[in-house]
Write a structure and sequence with these properties.
It is a single chain. The protein has 119 residues and is mainly alpha-helical. The chain has one domain. The chain has a two-stranded antiparallel ribbon with strand order 1-2. The protein starts with 5 loop residues before the first helix and ends with a helix. 19% of the residues are buried.
Length: 119
């Protein structure tokens, strides 16, 4: 029986990420990157469709995507919605103690899983 070593596992994860970027880039005719995918997930979760957004609205959508993705990984829990219909999240597991590079890796993995389900 052959098992993948750690380097091969990381290469597979990197390949999945690169494949996702390529797939989204082709689908939306853009050069997709980390922030674009967060923005796309935020739009999907908000359910507004693509309209002209202000810079603050874009940041809110990106933050929503981060919360949704961290919820999928057990760091946050959705507690309902506010009066404007935005989800409210509470912290289940503190993420501030995790190094930024590890948080990015967690988000990338969650994005691959999320968008594999949606695309």
């Amino acid at each position: 029986m052959v098992f993948l070593n750690e380097t091969e596992i990381m290469e597979n994860k990197d390949n999945s990420w690169e494949e996702l970027l390529l797939k989204v880039s082709k689908k939306f005719n853009v050069l997709a990157d980390f922030d674009f995918l967060l923005f796309l997930i935020g739009i999907q979760e908000r359910g507004t469709g693509y309209i002209k957004y202000s810079k603050d609205e874009k940041m809110d959508l990106i933050n929503l995507a981060r919360c949704v993705l961290f919820e999928r990984k057990g760091f946050y829990k959705q507690d309902g919605c506010d009066e404007a219909g935005w989800p409210i999240f509470s912290v289940v597991n503190v993420i501030d103690d995790i190094p930024p590079s590890e948080r990015e890796r967690i988000l990338k993995q969650a994005m691959v899983e999320y968008l594999d389900e949606k695309l």
